[in-house]
Amino acid sequence: MNEKTLYTLSATALILSAGLYAAFSFADDDDDDHDYGKNNKYQIHITNNPSYQEECGACHIAYPSALLPARSWQKIMSGLSDHFGENAELEAATQAQLTEYLSTHSAEHDKSYLPQKLLRRLPSGQTPLRISELPYLRHEHKEIPVRMISNNPKVKSISQCNHCHTQADKGSFAEREINIPGVGRWDD
User: Fold this and answer.
1) Rg (CA), the chain
2) Which helix (H) or strand (E) holds 184?
3) Where are the domains of the chain?
4) By the 8 A CB rule, do 166 and 177 touch?
5) Considering 68, 104, 116, 173, which has the largest number of Cβ atoms within 10 A of its Cβ?
6) Predicted TM-score of the model (pTM)
7) Averaged in consecutive runs of 10 residues, what is the pLDDT profile of the chain (188 residues)?
8) If residue 180 lies in a helix (H) or strand (E), which one and from where to where?
């Protein structure tokens, strides 16, 4: 084999290798580090307890239990006679069952990205009663002008997750799924 043929074969092999490497890299790229692709890091387990859906989902979104630590759910459930200004008392057996469910499916028990991020930012002595009080969520929403949330009659409050997070009922809070009513898609 002469030197020119060897050079041509080497160059061809190098080009083919680079092409195959690029093809396989793109084929496997599902953007694990972003909020799209098969591994959406903002996807959490939904609360699929029929009693919770019925009792709590009747007045507001049945918030995914993994959005709060167990200590928060326990405090919320023990104060239902004044649940943010409303009497939301339940029968004792139902209340006990829901408290147990929410506590065992809380942020500490969900190892996915978002609940763990919520917990890391929450001081251990703090027991938030509102999801909107979580430091991580406050940080994530601070860029959104007040006129788009509180002054927006179609949203009214940051606590109305499902008004802007179009897939909140499925447990997804990905940025690409945000659509603020009266404003449109949000992307910071």
Assistant:
1) 24
2) strand 184-185
3) 49-129, 143-183
4) yes
5) 68
6) 0.75
7) 69 64 50 47 80 90 93 97 95 97 94 90 93 92 91 91 92 91 86
8) strand 179-180
